[in-house]
């Protein structure tokens, strides 16, 4: 009898004996309470597989996603702004809580006005942050200025908290000569070296592997005391770059917080069509990372969780996947009409009872920290500043058109120099066809 025949016969007999004994299959980690049939082989045996350290079992069964509990959502405040467990109150000062509220109001007010500016044809594109203000402000408040931020495009509140000015926001949206990006990016693609906020890119997920690499570089610095925070949406997590970033962050043990803003929609695609399984947080386990999931409409929950995550990544030099659950109240952008794929009634719930501002306002009212007249005056002042700056930024000149050839290479290569000269001659010959007076000389 051949070796193959002996092997098959042995396998057949083994399988039949298992069936005859009616041994029920048991998988480690299942919820059915069965005992696990583990191998007597010790865990440190050199014959153990290098690819995974796990016990052997003598029963066979598929491990189903439905057999595991969903990762819970941590929250501090309920829908009415009450704190159920007083031990979870971060006990922030009145001044800090007031800044949180004011920054969210500023962001909300600026969004409304710039959205209307786009509708009037004054700027080309805009994206609002309605419903996600708490995830921005709560996370930013828990970080240090030295921490490096990689954003996707809906994290404007982080910049507001760090001190990015109204004129800087609006100049960027107009792409004028005072735009820090010199008009080389779409509107809402902000960046600030001063505030440690890496300039946003349009393609989804490109910032994620970059963030893992930046965190690895920080890890190599002596006495490192800063981490990287990378924001992305649940739709971006479907891109290949997201999985590459998770793997790099985990295997290189990088001090990076992968912050997923799960707002339920990737443009017009609802989350249940984007992925199966337990959201984004559960993916951390598969890559060997710690994870946390929070109520992204609760500014205190986000704050507490970000504090914990930051302490962990700096102490352990390991990454965390952070999932903030929220709801995108506004349209994806000015190029989208969300009424085509969701009801107005559904949106209204998240724009009122479950809105981050409503919860924090209720908390402040009970603390005696809220003044209705002060809020009205603050909104009035913000509107005045935005309106004034809109008119100023709109009239500013655009950067010199030659700058489109600059900023990529330290020295402009010959082929770009040739193109620039060709374009210069073309504009000179057809000056009446181009708005050259709108650009810096």
From TrEMBL:
It is an enzyme of class 1 (oxidoreductase). Residues 104-400 form the Dehydrogenase E1 component domain. GO terms for biological process: branched-chain amino acid catabolic process. It is found in: Mitochondrion matrix. The keyword Repeat does not apply. One of its GO terms (molecular function) is metal ion binding. The keyword Oxidoreductase applies. Keywords: Metal-binding, Mitochondrion, Oxidoreductase, Potassium, Thiamine pyrophosphate, Transit peptide. InterPro entries: Alpha-ketoacid_DH_E1_comp, DH_E1, THDP-binding. Residues 23-50 are annotated as: Disordered. Its EC number is 1.2.4.4. CDD domains: TPP_E1_PDC_ADC_BCADC. Its cofactor is thiamine diphosphate. One of its GO terms (cellular component) is mitochondrial matrix. It catalyses: N(6)-[(R)-lipoyl]-L-lysyl-[protein] + 3-methyl-2-oxobutanoate + H(+) = N(6)-[(R)-S(8)-2-methylpropanoyldihydrolipoyl]-L-lysyl-[protein] + CO2. The branched-chain alpha-keto dehydrogenase complex catalyzes the overall conversion of alpha-keto acids to acyl-CoA and CO(2). It contains multiple copies of three enzymatic components: branched-chain alpha-keto acid decarboxylase (E1), lipoamide acyltransferase (E2) and lipoamide dehydrogenase (E3). Belongs to the BCKDHA family. PANTHER family: 2-OXOISOVALERATE DEHYDROGENASE SUBUNIT ALPHA, MITOCHONDRIAL (PTHR43380). This is 2-oxoisovalerate dehydrogenase subunit alpha. It comes from Ceratitis capitata.
